Amino acid sequence: MAGSADPPEGTPDGTPEGFPGRSEDEYRPVVFDESFVRAARLQELSAQERMSDDDTPAVRDRPGPDHGDPARALDRDAAYEYAYDLDRRHHWLPARRRVHGPRLGALILVLLVATVFAAAIHLGTRYPYQPPPDLRTEPLRVTLVALAPTGPVPGGRPGDLYARSPADQYRPGAAGITLPPARRTAHFSQGQVMTALTIAKDFLFRSSLDPDTLTGDSTRPVRLLIDPDQLAQFDASVESPAADGRHATGGWLVRFDPAHATLADPGVRVRGTLQVTETSADVLEVTSDHTFAYALRPPGPGTDPDDASLFTVRRELRLRFDRDDLRMHRAELVTSQLQAGPMDCSADLSGALRPLLAGERPTTTAPPVTDPYAPTPATATATRLCATLSPNSQPSPP
Fold first, then answer.
1. Closest to 45 measured CA to CA, from 55, 56, 54, 36
2. Does pLDDT of 197 surpass 90?
3. Measured between alpha carbons, how far is 175 from 209 in angstroms, rounded to an integer?
4. Confidence label for 164 from pLDDT (cuts 50, 70 and 90)
5. Cα of 141 vs its chain's centroid, Å
6. In angstroms, rounded to a whole number, what is the distance separating the alpha carbons of residues 130 and 6?
7. 300 pLDDT band (50/70/90 cuts)?
8. Beta bridge partners of residue 156, listed in sequence order
9. pLDDT at 272
10. Contact (CB, 8 A) for 177 and 270
11. Which terminus has fewer CB within 10 Å in the chain: N or C?
């Protein structure tokens, strides 16, 4: 029967002849190059050889480099394996890489995890976790002591009063607050130590020497130098003072009752010391101990210049600085101790101070005698609210 050998309807599923059930695209990735053909162990006979003898097999063994050496042929066969993947078609893959590659990667991953875990255990035992230091700001603790004179308060001109008193050698204003040499500490540089000292000096000037602060006109310059966590306590102490050891105005600044006294000389005399201590790796503390001598007179324009008198205040402050305070130019006040006289022991020390002026006497006194110019620590009278002012601290008679 003449015509095409294919069925009338064509090959099933469009597969090429000789490949039933397989599409032509499926076999396109399989390429038999020249090296593959030479490596074949069987060779197909030619058409002439097959016609010469009907009993002749269609193929014969092909001699090659492994001919006569079965061991070498087996080694070559073992080097490769034929992997058939339904999704990835046919591939010739090296047996060693395919088998050992994933195992080597897994082994490296396990060793890496074990190394990291061991390092974490070692660091945890050698350097145990330490919580950061608690740098919460504490409320200021205040101690106020009134110093009562034993007789009438001496009067005179401001210059004469200073000359006849221990304040004669004191320097006026900010020049009397001298800074010690700044030396670096274990965790703070020389510059940071100097910054702490400078802030302490600024606070002393604004709170003890600034005329606007002394007369009650303004508290803003002092407020700007205080740690924000203490501002609520500061505002309460200024606006609603109380003798509770926390909210006395005198703990933060020196203020005179403007209805009772005013400055007779703006050049307040002062002398004292500043000391720096590193209390922790993150905190510096500055301790200040200064004595201030104020020339006061009664308010009013018609006051006689000879009616001035001296009022002495000794302040001991402990100021704390962390690194944020140094950067923001502010301080945390830890403790404040103030001795002030001449005053009456019955005077209210929680708010503005009411000094005894020239010619006035105290109504009550209390022992023992206290000299605010003496080098002894002021903490010796910290538990008393009133003491007797030493006569040696008053101006001598002319």
1. 56
2. yes
3. 11
4. very high
5. 25
6. 87
7. confident
8. 308
9. 97
10. yes
11. N
pLDDT of residue 397: 85
| C-alpha span between 338 and 314 (Å, rounded) | 6
**Cα 350 to Cα 247: distance, rounded to the nearest angstrom:** 7
Q: What pLDDT, on the 0 to 100 scale, is given for residue 134?
A: 52
The C-alpha atoms of residue 10 and residue 4 are separated, in whole angstroms, by 10
| Torsion sign, CA atoms 147, 148, 154, 155 | positive
- In whole angstroms, give the CA distance from residue 101 to residue 131: 46
- Residues 52-103: tens digit of each pLDDT: 655 656 666 666 555 555 555 544 554 444 444 444 444 444 444 444 566 7
Please say whether the beta carbons of 232 and 328 come within 8 A.
no
Residue 186: φ, ψ to 5°: -65, -35
State the Cα–Cα distance between residues 234 and 23, nearest whole angstrom. 92
Residue 323's SS3 state is helix
* CA–CA distances in Å: residue 215 to residues 296, 299, 300, 328, 356: 11, 11, 14, 27, 16
What is the sign, positive or negative, of the torsion defined by CA atoms of 390, 344, 213, 338? positive
Tokens 């004292």 locate to 272
Among 148, 142, 143, 140, CA closest to 382: 143
Q: Which two tokens stand for residue 218?
A: 């303004």
Cα–Cα distances (Å) from 379 to 99, 198, 375, in that order, read 84, 25, 11
CB atoms within 10 A of CB 84: 8
Mean pLDDT computed over 24-35: 54
* Per-residue tokens: 251: 């703990």
Amino acid at 105: G
Torsion angles phi and psi, residue 141, rounded to 5: -105, 130
Q: Which CA distances in Å does 92 have to 68, 95, 98, 356?
A: 26, 9, 11, 110
Mean predicted confidence (pLDDT) in 171-187: 96
